[in-house]
Design a protein that fits this description.
Elements: H1 5-20, H2 32-42, H3 47-60, H4 64-69, H5 72-79, H6 86-101, H7 110-113, H8 121-132, H9 141-150, H10 160-174, H11 179-192, H12 211-215, E1 231-242, E2 245-250, E3 261-262, E4 265-266, H13 269-275, E5 284-293, E6 296-305, E7 316-320, H14 331-344
Parallel strand pairs: 1-6
Antiparallel strand pairs: 1-2, 1-4, 2-3, 2-7, 5-6
Helix pairs in contact: 1-11, 2-3, 2-8, 8-11, 9-10, 9-11
């Protein structure tokens, strides 16, 4: 793109953002803490899902101190359902560090923010640019897609060399602009116009600057040599009941769902049968929960067993069915809870 064309692209993008930006709660504030929380929540999660969680979070944890002082169980309870629970644990750790070492105020530069737990280069740049006006560009999947299309970049985006080049391009584009607005405009464009499939080129404010559109096939970009292989897995869970209670197990802090409560689960059916000394043929199917992670699609086969003969452990606990809503569960197990409450509340084994 020529030096003459770049200012026009910047002007058109910012003007469009000023007219078309969605009214989102974290865009109504310059509070660095609130911007930080929104950016962490928006990682791997759609905007429509985040809004309610964000508003509820801010009612409970309105500032760094309230988050830092809260017990982790409370933090996880307010995060439950958003997934990727490491984000919540890192957010809590970072709040405690900010309260302890920075007087409760987030550092003002992307470089310093990047040193906090759970804050990577993208998030650090987003906070620094939006909250503090630092000229730091962001680069995520949306921005990668926009830049590779604008410049018809044929390089493999799976390559670290290509990503480094894209960081440089993004930084060059943001130069001398309103950095917070420009970064948000790029993110907004990727979220509402420059879709992975069927991009809305007819309403794109920078369509005239887009080399991929000029070539006639924007969806050919970004280019990636090797597609991710999605693996299908089957796991097994057990709802073990006794006297109107069910057995839960708290997950170790270092795991994917650290600190959350779950029904006992296994990678193999025979492991479940052996640990609980069950008669395999007499197991009663309860429900199936389909969910997934980045590279996995998981079918969770849930069985129930009306017996109190479950093996105990330090992390196991018998919980009254009527108290289940007081515990923080990951999303797949929340669905099991809802089904139990619907079919078993008020009953006893």
């Amino acid at each position: 793109m020529s030096k003459q064309a770049t200012p026009l692209l910047q002007k058109n993008l910012l003007a469009w953002y000023g007219r078309e930006a969605r009214d989102l709660p974290w865009r109504r504030t310059q509070d660095p803490y609130k911007i930080w929380v929104s950016e962490i929540m928006l990682q791997q999660t759609q905007v429509a899902t985040v809004i309610d969680y964000y508003n509820r979070w801010m009612r409970r944890f309105p500032d760094v101190k309230s988050l830092a002082d809260a017990p982790l169980a409370d933090v996880l309870e307010h995060w439950a359902g958003l997934g990727y629970y490491r984000r919540a644990r890192m957010l809590h750790q970072a709040a405690q560090l900010v309260a302890r070492s920075y007087g409760g105020r987030l550092p003002h530069t992307a470089a310093a923010l990047n040193e906090l737990p759970g804050i990577g280069r993208y998030t650090a740049a987003a906070i620094a640019s939006i909250a503090f006006g630092e000229s730091s560009a962001v680069l995520d999947g949306n921005v990668i897609r926009i830049l590779t299309r604008l410049f018809a970049l044929p390089d493999d985006v799976g390559s670290p060399k290509t990503i480094a080049k894209l960081w440089d391009i993004a930084q060059e584009l943001i130069k001398d602009q309103a950095p917070g607005d420009f970064n948000q405009a790029m993110m907004e464009l990727g979220a509402t116009v420059c879709f992975p499939k069927n991009p809305s080129c007819g309403v794109c404010p920078v369509a005239d600057s887009c080399k991929a559109r000029a070539k006639g096939d924007p969806t050919a970009f970004p280019f990636k040599k090797r597609k991710e292989i999605i693996e299908s897995l089957t796991n097994f869970a057990l709802v073990c009941r006794k006297d109107g209670r069910v057995l839960l197990r708290q997950q170790p802090e270092e795991g994917r769902w650290g600190g959350l409560w779950m029904f006992p689960f296994w990678a193999k059916r025979e492991h479940m049968v052996r640990e609980f000394d069950l008669k395999s043929k007499k197991l009663k199917p309860f429900m199936t929960v389909n969910h997934g992670f980045t590279k996995y699609r998981i079918s969770l086969k849930v069985y129930e067993h009306p017996s109190g003969g479950a093996p105990g452990s330090a992390r196991s606990k018998w919980v009254p069915i009527t108290d289940l809503s007081k515990y923080a569960f990951p999303s797949p197990h929340q669905r099991i809870v809802r089904e139990i409450l619907k079919t078993h509340a008020g009953t006893a084994s």
